[in-house]
């Protein structure tokens, strides 16, 4: 492993800081729209990564 790995604490701090930027500038009723959108994008990213890993295992890295 390299020294450039990101630790969970760093990720949590970055997300918390990002949320802090919205507090006070975004109405709370609209804030949920941003959070739900980010959660949906994260879900899509995870699903894509799982499918990609499965396809790599089945077919390898070479394009067809």
What's the layout of helices and strands?
Layout: H1 8-22, H2 28-59
Rg estimate, integer Å = 17 Å
How helix-rich are the residues, as a percent range? over 70%
Number of helices: 2
Note the run of SSEs as H and E. Answer: HH
User: Largest beta sheet, briefly?
Assistant: none
Which parts are unreliable, with pLDDT below 50 for 5 consecutive residues or more?
none
Secondary structure category: mainly alpha
Shape, please?
Answer: elongated
Number of strands: 0
The portion of residues forming beta strands comes to under 5%
Q: Would you mind describing this structure in some detail?
A:
This protein is an all-alpha fold and 64 residues long. The protein has a domain at 27-64. 73% of the residues lie in helices and 0% in strands. The chain contains 2 helices and no strands. The protein has helices spanning 8-22, 28-59.
């Amino acid at each position: 492993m390299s020294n450039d790995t990101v630790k969970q604490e760093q990720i949590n701090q970055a997300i918390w800081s990002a949320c802090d930027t919205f507090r006070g500038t975004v109405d709370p009723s609209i804030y949920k729209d941003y959070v739900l959108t980010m959660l949906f994008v994260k879900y899509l990213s995870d699903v894509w990564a799982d499918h990609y890993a499965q396809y790599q295992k089945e077919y390898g890295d070479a394009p067809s």
